[in-house]
Design brief:
575 residues; 3-stranded antiparallel beta sheet; 22 helices
């Protein structure tokens, strides 16, 4: 209720929220505390008349990100293992929390030396790789208000009111300071490094117990039946390992901007896999893996330089490179023996020799960096070559593919062909468009107007005379990227709204049946439900599953259209 009011009417103070929601003051205050703890709401102190009020507002992007919880958890499990998943999920569920609270929630003994060391090492890795970040009190304040307060503080330091030029310098300094904090490589929350002894061949895995607690950390230093600790066993090899200690009193939260980078990279890999083959996708994935360490958010427009040697190191040994590209007739890679005969690769059909693997990787690098999308750039020809990833071009290419899919689904293949012609040629008269798309002028004009009404394309007027008479003007059709993005976002938001309404309608239509399933006697004896009621419940579950799948598809479109765009990411810093 509180979020609904704030989304509809904008920022409000506590009294206004209590009046609009018809809730008591304590209930509204508790709801706001939960929303702030999960990063959905922010607050700011502002003066109204002679009194100071605390205004609250919510971020729509934070709410929509909740739909990606499953994708985020899958990414963390893939990259950080079950240990990292358990810690990250606990932080995601509880919102802003300390590492000490996470340890208690997972049931890790405070006095267990090895278990605590293992837990701290996993947490330190999450912090270093920025899956979770430290949170201060100022992070819960609305960003725009915080910048305005800093501007007021700088102005008060001056003896006379600032001029427009001086005010511009102050604002530039504030933005530079914000950018410096963003670019800082200092990891907040790690207070020291400790040298500990850990068994080299003893691993710790997490196992979820029946009570919902994680038992893996406590099993790490469990002893045998005689009470002897496994760590003191003389037959086990000991090694020195450096472990970062994380401050138990520091508050942390999940850093979703970092996880959006991984989702963006997966979309880029899918693009090359669909356009070429799985081998090209695996090669691009290795390039992105080499750049992920320096790519914190989607604001980055250009990646760090990656050498071919780094690509070889990061590409998986199971990458499907066989038959991904034919290099047998390539004059630059063909080898000959002493008699001038071509050397045929004798590697088996499932394994590649080192030379053949290198040939395929070099050939694929030549293909992907000459791709028309311009995502992979070759910046240096020295040695085996240096490559970079143009994330700005990647965002544009992925957005164009998504918009093409939306137009094809909503209007048809002919409208999608018109859109592609205008995107390639730009600013064309309708007669030229009709010739390029091989359509009669009448149907072509009607389809152009359909796209214009939907906001996908736009027109520009070029006057023939100074009076700008409409009858003496050229009207050229072109693609307005900003307007197109807003229209695509409107389609996605409308689709999400329709899914929510349909889900609410399906549940409300079976409200009595759902209430019956929650009765204690029905829970203890499910046979009290008739065959028709069971069939209706199965039908409801099937409908909700289809709606959930459709919602995930729309969320992936939202990610491609708006979230991964570097310009959009910069604007979101002010939210």
């Amino acid at each position: 209720t509180v979020v609904d009011v704030l989304l509809r009417e904008g920022r409000m103070h506590l009294g206004q929220l209590a009046n609009r929601t018809k809730l008591t003051g304590p209930n509204v205050r508790q709801a706001l505390a939960v929303l702030i703890q999960h990063g959905i709401a922010t607050h700011a102190l502002s003066k109204v008349g002679s009194r100071m009020f605390t205004f609250y507002s919510v971020c729509l992007k934070s709410i929509l990100r909740l739909q990606r919880a499953g994708l985020y958890l899958a990414l963390v499990e893939e990259r950080m293992g079950s240990e990292g998943l358990a810690i990250f999920r606990t932080i995601m569920v509880n919102g802003l929390t300390t590492i000490g609270n996470v340890r208690e929630a997972l049931g890790i003994a405070e006095n267990g030396n090895a278990a605590k060391i293992k837990f701290n090492s996993v947490v330190a890795k999450l912090v270093r790789d920025r899956y979770i970040i430290a949170v201060n009190t100022v992070d819960t304040i609305t960003k725009v208000d915080r910048i305005m307060q800093e501007e007021v503080v700088e102005v008060e330091k001056m003896t006379i009111p600032p001029t427009a030029k001086e005010l511009l310098v102050i604002r530039r300094k504030i933005l530079e300071r914000e950018e410096e904090e963003y670019q800082s490589s200092t990891v907040v929350g790690i207070k020291r490094r400790a040298s500990v002894d850990i068994s080299a061949d003893h691993s710790s895995k997490l196992h979820m117990g029946a009570d919902g607690r994680v038992n893996g950390f406590n099993n790490y230093d469990s002893g045998d039946q005689n009470g002897h600790s496994h760590l003191n066993n003389g037959h086990q090899q000991q090694q020195q390992q450096q472990v970062d200690a994380v401050d138990d009193k520091q508050f942390f939260r999940a850093y979703y901007d970092r996880l959006d980078v991984f989702l963006r990279n997966q979309q880029i890999v899918n693009y090359f896999s669909d356009k070429y083959n799985a081998g090209a996708g695996a090669l691009v994935k290795s390039i992105l893996r080499a750049t992920e360490q320096h790519t914190r958010t989607c604001r980055v427009k250009l990646s760090e330089t990656v050498s071919s040697t780094q690509v070889f190191q990061h590409i998986s040994a199971e990458a499907p490179l066989i038959d991904s590209i034919d290099t047998s007739k390539d004059m630059f890679h063909q080898k000959f023996d002493a008699n001038g005969n071509p050397i045929v690769d004798t590697s088996s059909g499932t394994e590649l020799s080192r030379e053949k693997r290198s040939e395929i990787i070099f050939a694929l690098l030549e293909v992907i960096h000459t791709d028309s999308s311009g995502i992979i750039i070759k910046v240096d020809d020295r040695g085996t070559g240096q490559y970079r990833v143009n994330f700005e071009r990647a965002a544009i290419t992925l957005r164009e593919r998504c918009v093409d899919a939306l137009v094809h689904e909503k209007f048809g293949s002919v409208h999608a062909r018109l859109l592609r012609v205008l995107r390639d040629k730009q600013k064309l008269d309708e007669k030229v468009v009709a010739q390029a798309t091989m359509l009669p002028i009448g149907p072509c004009r009607a389809r152009l107007h359909d796209l214009a009404l939907a906001g996908i394309i736009d027109t520009i007027e070029i006057p023939r005379s100074a009076d700008r008479n409409p009858s003496r003007m050229f009207y050229l059709w072109y693609v307005n990227a900003d307007k197109q993005m807003r229209s695509a976002l409107r389609f996605v938001y409308q689709g999400m709204s329709n899914i929510i309404e349909r889900n609410t309608k399906e549940v409300s239509a079976r409200a009595l049946l759902i209430a019956k399933t929650k009765r204690e006697d029905v829970i203890l004896d499910p046979s009290l439900l008739t065959d028709g009621e069971r069939k209706e419940l199965n039908n409801l579950a099937r409908i909700k599953q289809k709606l959930a799948i459709a919602n995930v598809r729309l969320d992936s479109m939202l990610l491609v259209i708006y979230d991964i765009d570097p310009q959009s990411a910069e604007l979101q810093l002010l939210q």
